[in-house]
Design goal:
Layout lengths: L13 E4 L2 E12 L5 E10 H5 L7 E8 L5 E6 L5 H8 L3 E4 L3 E2 L2 H6 L6 E2 L2 E8 L2 E5 L1
Antiparallel strand pairs: 1-2, 2-3, 2-4, 4-5, 5-10, 6-9, 7-8, 9-10
Length: 136
């Protein structure tokens, strides 16, 4: 189980957890072609890189992971989501990716994959206590 860390104190390091590689980061949710409005993954930042940016209401701390089946997953804490963003994107059974998203090379390398594309589509949104999990 991953322990909850205070916002802003996450280190962009890989840790091995039962054969699952994880990377603490921050994601701006939205569609890249719509200036990060809409539904999807717009941008991903390292925790250190995100500290240098102005706050953004759609940028949320997440845990990126490659599961034991080689699939990219994303885990976020509901407590980190503004209510409006939760209602817009995370209240239903599925998370919608409106536009394909390519995992940046730095993150792919750190997670041990050559490259990774998340196709547009609907992905099951699983709630586990305060955590929301999505596997792409």
């Amino acid at each position: 189980m991953v322990q909850t860390h205070p916002k802003g104190n996450l280190a962009a390091k890989i840790r091995l957890l039962r054969n699952v590689k994880i990377l603490f980061s921050e994601v701006v949710f939205g569609t890249p072609g719509r200036r990060c409005e809409g539904s999807g993954l717009c941008r991903i930042y390292t925790v250190t890189g995100a500290k240098r940016l102005d706050p953004h209401p759609r940028r949320i701390p997440v845990i990126l992971l490659i599961n034991s089946k080689g699939k990219l997953g994303l885990r976020l804490n509901k407590n980190d989501l503004p209510e409006e963003l939760y209602k817009e994107l995370f209240q239903g059974e599925f998370f919608l990716i409106e536009e394909q998203f390519g995992l940046p090379a730095y993150f792919a390398r750190k997670l041990g994959v050559g490259h990774y594309k998340v196709p547009a589509g609907e992905y099951l949104l699983q709630a586990r206590g305060n955590w929301l999990d999505i596997v792409f």
